[in-house]
């Protein structure tokens, strides 16, 4: 009887356990969602893996994939592909699944747009639990600073998504119903942050526009503005800006 049990146990080990291991190893990681990119602002800084970030290398940040994992990222708008190595954690913006280096973003043709819908697929078999695309990821509040032009700059952090209690329009001016105004919601050194702001305002029913300018020190900025706002609509527009997650904007009368 014991001999029969031993034989059955050996059969279990040789049949079921290899099958279980094989089932785990055949898992290929696939994930669809929005990709973004990061570049010069993090150049020379250590990544979460300890490696120094180099925007010219084919690397990427992912919330959960093991460091060193090689993945193929496909831009679903143009079917362009790039192979990157995971060496950092991020992105820390809800609904985004991967943050690629600038070099990778150039290959995917998404530098200008800042974001793109992508498919992420691991080259090797891997066991990992993919985070939900709709997973709520905490976003640290950003403290804006003023650049030399007086514009609000969020130099390297994601746009705040919490709805503030109120919004401040500066400078304080008298709004005339029969005049036209221009509201500047943000001015950014990082193009993708301007894209974030543009999308948030667009989703709030507004009609934003981009402006690119270079200051006296040859530093390029990306402004997001709302132009041609009637004085009678300024308060409604300000309320929509606040609902999009912003607590201040610059205002001036248009000529």
What report would you give on this structure?
A hairpin with a 5-residue loop joins strand 11 (209-214) and strand 12 (220-230). The protein starts with a helix and ends with a strand. A 6-stranded mixed barrel has the order 1-5-2-4-3-6. Strands 9-13-10-12-11 form a 5-stranded mixed β-sheet, covered by helices on one side. The chain has helices spanning 2-25, 102-108, 191-203, 234-243; strands at residues 30-38, 59-61, 70-75, 81-88, 96-101, 115-122, 145-146, 152-153, 168-170, 180-188, 209-214, 220-230, 248-253. It is elongated and about 65 Å long. It is α+β, with helices and mostly antiparallel strands.
Strand residue content = 25-35%
Poorly predicted runs are: 7-26, 128-160
CATH topology of the largest domain: Alpha-Beta Plaits
Q: Which CATH-level-2 architecture of the largest domain?
A: 2-Layer Sandwich
Helix percentage range: 10-25%
How many strands?
13
- Looking at the structure, what is the overall shape? elongated
Return the CATH class of the largest domain: Alpha Beta
How many discrete structural domains?
A: 2
| CATH superfamily caption of the largest domain | Sporulation related repeat
Order of helices and strands: HEEEEEHEEEEEHEEHE
Instruction: Provide the residue-averaged pLDDT.
Output: 76
Number of helices: 4
Radius of gyration equals 24 Å
Q: What structural category arises from helix and sheet content?
A: alpha+beta
Distance between the termini: 99 Å
Biggest sheet, spatial arrangement of strands:
1-5-2-4-3-6
Tell me about the largest β-sheet.
6 strands, mixed, barrel
């Amino acid at each position: 009887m014991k001999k029969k049990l031993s034989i059955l146990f050996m059969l279990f080990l040789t049949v079921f356990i290899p099958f279980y291991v094989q089932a785990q190893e055949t898992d290929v990681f696939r994930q669809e969602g929005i990709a973004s990119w990061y570049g010069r602002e993090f150049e020379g800084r250590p990544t979460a893996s300890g490696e120094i970030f180099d925007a010219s290398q084919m690397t990427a940040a992912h919330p959960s994939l093991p460091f060193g994992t090689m993945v193929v990222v496909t831009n679903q708008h143009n079917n362009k592909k790039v192979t990157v190595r995971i060496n950092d954690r991020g992105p820390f913006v809800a609904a985004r699944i991967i943050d690629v280096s600038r070099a990778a973003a150039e290959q995917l043709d998404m530098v200008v747009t800042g974001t793109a819908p992508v498919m992420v697929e691991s080259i090797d078999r891997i066991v990992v639990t993919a985070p939900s695309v709709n997973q709520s990821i905490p976003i640290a509040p950003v403290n804006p600073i003023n650049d030399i032009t007086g514009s609000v700059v969020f130099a390297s952090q994601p746009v705040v998504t919490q709805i503030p209690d109120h919004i401040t329009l500066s400078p304080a001016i008298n709004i005339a119903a029969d005049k036209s105004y221009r509201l500047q919601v943000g001015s950014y050194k990082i193009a993708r942050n301007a894209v974030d702001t543009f999308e948030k305002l667009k989703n709030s029913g507004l009609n934003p526009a981009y402006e690119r300018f270079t200051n006296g020190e040859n530093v390029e900025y990306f402004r997001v503005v709302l132009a041609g706002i009637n004085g009678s609509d300024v308060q409604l527009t300000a309320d929509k800006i606040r609902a999009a997650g912003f607590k201040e904007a610059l205002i001036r009368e248009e000529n």
